[in-house]
Amino acid sequence: MTQPWQPVLDWWFGPGKTAAEVSARQLPLWFGKRASQDAEAQQRFGHLVEQALSGQLPEWSATPDGWLAHILLLDQLPRMIYRDTPKAFAGDRLSQPLLRMGLEKGWDQQLKPIQRLFAYLVYEHAEDLVLQDQAVELFEKLLAQVPPDEHELFAGYLDYAERHQRVIARFGRFPHRNQILGRTSSAQESAFLQEPGSSF
Questions:
Q1: Is residue 105 domain-resident?
Q2: In angstroms, rounded to a whole number, what is the distance separating the alpha carbons of residues 143 and 94?
Q3: Exposed end of the chain (fewer CB within 10 Å): N or C?
Q4: The domain spanning residue 23 has which CATH number?
Q5: Closest of 129, 123, 126, 167 to residue 142, by C-alpha
Q6: Burial code of 88-113, b = ≥16 C-beta within 10 A, e = fewer?
Q7: 122 within a domain of the structure (yes/no)
Q8: Helix 35-53 and helix 6-13, axial crossing angle in degrees, nearest 10
Q9: In this model, does residue 26 exceed pLDDT 80?
Q10: Which value, in Å, is the radius of gyration of the alpha carbons in the chain?
């Protein structure tokens, strides 16, 4: 019997076996901005995202795989389905304690490295320096655990974590979210947003 969360994992990670294969195939889905992908996420999983945001799927977090899928519903898919609206970040307050719980249980260690990446992104997305520091630490440990032929790939993900951390250390928030969330940017933030790579 297929678990209810398995379609989410299958869609997100695809059929690749190695981290390099999975990343190469899925990168446009993960980090691209395509209306067609956002629409597909809404069509296939919008009802589950709404349930997750409403706290209706606690049973998903009873196993490592279900826990990861639950995180995806709260952290990744809202950023697609509700892109450029405040609701894109609505799952953050729920995904952070969910990640903490799984880390305490050691569930991240039962996942493949490429899957662990998307658990740790919860802290990388946080507008909180303590959580950002933890994200960098998690990505450092992940890099140390992958085989040499995957080192370059995961070093890139660590670099992104460090870049997020530096923004939060400097501003205490992500300036590129200000307009979406109705926040007024400071002069320093406005200047920063003119720099290449200032938005994630």
A1: yes
A2: 26
A3: N
A4: 1.25.40.10
A5: 123
A6: bbebbebbbebbeebbeeebbeebeb
A7: yes
A8: 150
A9: yes
A10: 17
Buried b (16+ CB within 10 A) or exposed e, 49-75: beebbeeebeebbeebbbbbbbbbbbb
What sign does the dihedral 151-123-72-58 (CA atoms) show? Answer: positive
* Mean pLDDT of the 122-150 span: 97
Residue 200 lies in a domain: no
C-alpha 156: how far from chain center: 15
Number of domains in the chain: 1
Contact 85/45 with Cβ under 8 angstroms? no
- Averaged over 9-20, what is the pLDDT? 93
pTM over 0.90: yes
- Cα(23)–Cα(131) distance, rounded to whole angstroms? 25
CA torsion, ordered 162, 30, 45, 75, to nearest 10 deg = 0
What is the sign of the dihedral through the CA atoms of 101, 103, 106 and 108? positive
User: Looking at this protein, which amino acid is placed at residue 155?
Assistant: A
Residue 199 domain flag: no
Q: What distance in Å separates the CA atoms of residue 99 and residue 73, rounded to the nearest whole number?
A: 13
d(CA 200, CA 174): 9
